[in-house]
Write a structure and sequence with these properties.
heterodimer, A: 88 residues, mainly beta, Folate-binding fold, four-stranded antiparallel sheet, two-stranded antiparallel sheet, B: 184 residues, alpha+beta, Gyrase A, domain 2, six-stranded antiparallel sheet, 11 strands
Chain lengths: 88, 184
């Protein structure tokens, strides 16, 4: 598996650390309802198809990345920097 | 005040030449991390211009005389071999990294094939041309790798990993030499 880091170019999987679902980018506001925090912390989809997750390029440019990939075909359709993105 | 003696990272380390490849320890030098503040690129460029340096694009390094500016991350570069110019601190977070990194020069034909044993990135001249500088692992160590000539690179790692880097590279040279010996 190879990921095309927006800064470093195409790199081997061993350079990256997998963190989990991209849901972690959507942190509830302070004082949000417990249900929102429950979703944020615990509840994840388990799609057969397109999913988005967070990877860290720890052996390269040290940037957090959002990777869009397909769990069925293993196709990777997008790798984007977390830095500088518009709030979700 | 006690008198402190600065010790070179490679103190006592001799160069090695095997299998046509030369592994040479590099002298410690001034290294400054220049991490641009958001929107600081233009101001930093103006301050760096008198040095003859422009802020490098990702995966590139630039030099002017002994001074170089090496891309090391998003909006970050290492200034090596020169003091940061006055005013740079207004455009970027400038921190002294001198003594924190240790470098080696590796040169000779077959360089890319030798490093392919340790670095999972294509380092052939077509993919890693003159002026290129990348962040990449050398086995398990995070490194900065610069192309310094047609058959020459520099590899910089955290100083604490200097001996490990040397061990890894010397072992590659040993094995390539052994392979040549077997072929006769």
């Amino acid at each position: 598996m190879r990921l095309k880091c927006p800064l470093c170019g195409e790199r081997d999987r061993r350079e990256f650390y997998y963190s989990g679902a991209a849901d972690y980018l959507s942190r509830p506001e302070a004082g949000a309802a417990p249900a929102a925090w429950d979703d944020y912390l615990h509840n994840r989809d388990n799609p057969a198809g397109v999913t988005r997750d967070l990877w860290y390029h720890e052996q390269g440019c040290a940037q957090w990345l959002v990777v869009t990939r397909n769990t069925v075909t293993h196709e990777i359709t997008a790798v984007e920097l977390v830095a500088g993105r518009a709030a979700e | 005040m006690p008198e402190l003696i600065a010790k070179q990272a490679w103190a006592g380390q001799a160069s090695v030449t095997k299998a046509g490849l030369s592994l040479v320890p590099l002298e410690d030098r001034a290294i400054w991390s220049v991490a641009l503040f958001p929107g600081g690129a233009e101001a930093a460029g103006a301050v760096l211009a008198p040095l003859g340096l422009g802020f490098p694009q990702p995966n590139r390094w630039v030099s002017a005389g002994a001074a170089r500016l090496v891309w090391t991350g998003r909006d970050q570069a290492f200034l090596m071999g020169a003091e940061p110019p006055a005013g740079l601190a207004g455009a970027a977070a400038v921190t002294d990294q001198s003594g924190g990194w240790a470098g080696v020069a590796l040169s000779g034909p077959g360089l890319a094939q030798a490093l392919a044993r340790l670095v999972p990135v294509d380092l052939t001249p077509a993919a890693f041309p003159e002026g290129a500088a990348i962040r990449a692992p050398v086995n398990h160590m995070s490194a900065v790798i610069l192309r310094t000539g047609a058959e020459a690179v520099e590899i910089w790692v955290f100083r604490s990993m200097a001996r490990t880097l040397w061990h890894e590279l010397a072992e590659v040279l040993d094995r390539l030499e052994a392979r040549i010996a077997i072929k006769g």
